[in-house]
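Treating backbone geometry as a discrete language has practical consequences that deserve illustration. No coordinates are needed to read the tokens, only the vocabulary itself. For completeness, the protein is quoted in full, as a sequence line and a line of structure tokens:
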Amino acid sequence: MADNLTDSIVRNLPAPAAGYSLEFDAKVAGFACRVTKAGARSFVFNYRTRAGRQRRITIGSFPAWKTAAAREEATKLRQAVDRGEDPMQARRELRGAPTVTDLADRYRQVHLPTKRPASAANDEAALRKYVLPALGNLKITDVQHADIVALHRKISDPPKPAKSAPIAANRVLALVSTMFNLAIQERLRVDNPAQHVARNPENKRDRYLNREEIARLSAVLAAHPEKAAANAVRLLLLTGARRGEVLGATWDQFDLAAGAWTKPPGSTKQKKLHRVPLSAPALALLAEMRAEAAPDANFVFPSRTRAGKVKPLGSIKTAWATICRRAGLEDVHLHDLRHSFASLLASGGASLPLIGALLGHTQAQTTQRYAHLVDEAMRDATERVGAFVVGAGQPSAEVVPLERGRRA
């Protein structure tokens, strides 16, 4: 008759001459200690499924697992079998369950090809730097809301504080949320653990260059030794285009005779064809650059790899930092040139729909940030009309516009 297994009994079980031997427990049916020829000891649980299949599942090795703990685990397995479950099959399915690393690979296949190269590169960097180190080994079904909160908090508050960290954390959160929406679509889980995670507050930049700053910038650009970078900055300011649109532009996009730039869908954020008129200074700049470019040049701002391959200029970040320093410009990003272009349009009386059309906005609310500038331009226009009306028939009288906020 079998005895209840104890640590002492397990430790002193003799090793068989060949193969392995099993010593069963008297308390829990199917619970046993397996001893190999080499003397290794481990706890196992034998059972039969409802379909009649004989199974053996390994609980753990002795002495890492004590007998009492192994018996408790065997009891749970016995209860599962009595309910009609198959613990071995469940374990196999769990081992084969996709992880967040698998989900990231699927995201790369489904979403990255639809994004602009810069956005796809940002997502890839976020996956490698943040998402996979923190979540990659977890099963998709095991990721909890708390895991996402912890990841967002860790990125938001890095060991070395950085101004961009809170925004970077929000971008990673959006990426993870999209990944788990994909998991729901493909029936890998039923909920999105990234939902309802509080995002860090983001204040939209409201930095525009004034006329004096633009004059200083223009003077520095005229003398800057890196002509390609200087011309790229000029074109950004003259067109209000996005950095990627300018640096990745090709000559076939420009019709200098018609004075227009047609951006193909693949180069724009809105994924739509965007045709905009070019000002005389912009045309003069492009004409000068075209005259200096090789006859068979494709890219407006070309660069060469070490292998000699021609590709578009990737970045002017370093040159821009030098330009800002020499021009005395503080806290100015390249994207602020786009805002400056829009502010000049608004100050000149352009309507919000016109500004949105020139910038390539697809939603009116995106352009709404410039509404206060349009209001100022309209107010100045009404002041001029008012001054004319008041002064009509009184050519000798001096009309003094009322100060805003004061009543006569």
Notes: Residues 100-185 form one domain. The CA atoms of residues 110 and 182 lie 9 Å apart. The chain has three domains: 7-96, 100-185, 211-336.
